[in-house]
Amino acid sequence: NVSATVVDSNNTFVRLVAPSSLAKQGDVLLIADTGAYVSLANAWSFGTAGVITLVTPNAGWFGNLVTIRGTVLRGLGARVASVYLAGTAARLIRSENDTEVVVEAGLPAQPFAVNTIAGAVTVVADTGATVTLDSQWLYYVA
Prior knowledge:
Radius of gyration: 18 Å
Order of helices and strands: EEEEEEEEEEEEE
Mean pLDDT: 90
Strand order of the largest sheet: 6-13-12-8-9
Oligomer: single chain
Number of helices: 0
Number of strands: 13
Largest sheet: 5 strands, mixed
Strand content: over 45%
């Protein structure tokens, strides 16, 4: 069993965020605060998790082109919605598909506070799915 977090709901829908899990299919069981429940067999499936395998270059400045390679980068969705390099949103997604994303590095919020900013590379799909590779980008900011 996998428990999800309710983000929003009313009498006709429930929006959830599910934690990551191994690829599998299963039932959906919703339990109200009154104890009432509704279920549907085989209504949910976890897809294969995305993986970032390569970031080139792995360091750079604002505006540099960065290529991210991997698998399932669209998170089983239709497109990549956003990319973050060391916590900073990419300025522009130049091209994207399920195995490669090319972005222009964005401008860090406080670019002159330190000489470098290091952190993860995160690809966010239009489904909300995220694919992250820790400690793979270094901004040169000063």
